[in-house]
Amino acid sequence: MLWSLLFITLIERSTQQDPGCSPGWETIKLDDKVAFQSSVYTDKNGVKFSADRAFDGNILISAHTAQETNSWWTVDLLGLWEISCITIYNTNQDNVDLRGAHILIGNSSERNPADTTECATINTTTRGETKTFNCENGTKWGRYVTVYKNTSGFLILCEVTMKGRKKEPFKLIKENKTWADALYHCREEHMDLVSILDNETQVWVGLAAQKADTPFVWLGLQYICGFNFWIWVNDQCVFFDQWAPNETRTAVCGMNTAMNKGGNHLWYKKSVYDKYNFICAV
Ligand SMILES: *[C@@H]1O[C@H](CO)[C@@H](O)[C@H](O)[C@H]1NC(C)=O
Ligand SMILES: *[C@@H]1O[C@H](CO)[C@@H](O)[C@H](O)[C@H]1NC(C)=O
Ligand SMILES: *[C@@H]1O[C@H](CO)[C@@H](O)[C@H](O)[C@H]1NC(C)=O
Ligand SMILES: *[C@@H]1O[C@H](CO)[C@@H](O)[C@H](O)[C@H]1NC(C)=O
Ligand SMILES: *[C@@H]1O[C@H](CO)[C@@H](O)[C@H](O)[C@H]1NC(C)=O
Ligand SMILES: *[C@@H]1O[C@H](CO)[C@@H](O)[C@H](O)[C@H]1NC(C)=O
Ligand SMILES: *[C@@H]1O[C@H](CO)[C@@H](O)[C@H](O)[C@H]1NC(C)=O
Q: Which domain of life is it from (predicted)?
């Protein structure tokens, strides 16, 4: 009798916890990510309560904004993630009050509504508690996770963790191949060499390019020699482009397009026999 009661209690407890954060969601490693916040509180000893303190693994050390009407804390996950839930721990202090704050998931650090969707509204102070907020209407996809508080006061976060799943629309292949071999590899192993038709894709591909070990990465933009025009490997014409200022569209035969690993990830014409890392659409 006692045992079965205990058993039922245990089942109840485990089913009540984190409905959206069931096993299968990985805890997102945050300490290699970048966080920022609307302002930084500095105490009388000159200690800056910067945004990264919310995921330093120490629940006694907090991120803390100044007192203001609109405050926010954002982490850049440096890639696209499907976010399932966010857990917030705070100490039991009077100035901790996150009631009414919103957890936003977006693709822009600007938090503009067009690029942002709401995961959950915080309905408790979080004072002295560890609370998990599941995205209310299902998981959300994005690169930035923001806690946005538009009521006056401080925004304090002792510790934040989140669970989700990495979504990689593009994959950097760290092998040095000629353009044709890169195309062949992508078509065999994935979908295709990447085509960049808009700025959003340019931003994701640029992010992947940063991890390359060659100074350029191949893109799926090829020059059709006899006809003197550029075309993506998925047969789309070029409406959006990011050519480097010193590049001209007219090419010599045997040149295709590679993206700069650094800087603004501009595009350059490179000999098809050069060997670079490359980015596949997956
Ligand atoms: C972010 O971009 C991804 C990939 O383009 C898209 O699936 C997702 O819906 C976007 N998220 C938001 C909040 O707009
Ligand atoms: C979830 O959907 C319901 C019903 O459409 C809506 O009222 C609520 O605001 C949504 N929650 C969030 C966090 O977007
Ligand atoms: C806060 O929201 C959660 C999830 O929507 C709900 O289960 C809980 O009862 C709410 N708490 C309060 C104090 O309203
Ligand atoms: C705060 O956010 C809520 C919900 O997004 C909105 O209705 C309200 O107008 C905002 N208040 C201010 C002062 O911006
Ligand atoms: C590719 O070339 C770069 C230098 O251009 C080199 O650092 C790297 O080790 C090479 N990678 C492979 C897998 O050979
Ligand atoms: C492309 O998007 C990025 C990030 O959202 C933005 O900073 C940049 O200004 C945009 N560039 C163009 C050409 O629209
Ligand atoms: C443009 O500049 C880049 C980097 O400095 C260089 O690799 C490339 O060859 C230049 N292109 C032209 C057409 O001068």
A: Eukaryota
- The model's pLDDT over 154-165, given as tens digits with 9 standing for 90+, comes to 999 999 999 999
Angstrom distance (rounded) from CA 183 to CA 230:
16
Task: Please say which residue of 139, 166, 193 terminates a domain.
Answer: 166
**Residue 10 maps to a domain:** no
Q: Which residues contact ligand 2 via a Cβ below 6 A? A: 118, 120-121, 136-137
Distances (CA, A) of 53 to 65, 90, 159, 182: 12, 12, 8, 42
| pLDDT at residue number 116 | 92
**Whether residue 180 has its Cβ less than 6 Å from ligand 6:** no
**Which range marks the domain in which residue 47 is found?**
20-166
- Amino acid letter at 65? T
Write out the two tokens for 229.
Answer: 């025009």
> At 114, is the secondary structure helix, strand, or coil?
helix
Contact 162, 133 (CB under 8 A): no
Q: Which of 77, 81, 83 is nearest to 118 (CA)?
A: 83
Identify whether residues 88 and 147 lie together within a single domain: yes
| Residue 143 sits in the same domain as residue 91 | yes
Residue 12 within a domain: no
Rounded-to-integer distance, Cα 10 and Cα 136, Å: 25
Q: Within this chain, do residues 155 and 266 fall inside the same structural domain, yes or no?
A: no
Structure tokens at 205: 């591909």
Q: What is the mean pLDDT of residues 44-48?
A: 95
- Return the best residue to mutate from 174, 177, 213 for the ligand 5 pocket (most ligand atoms within 8 A of CB): 213
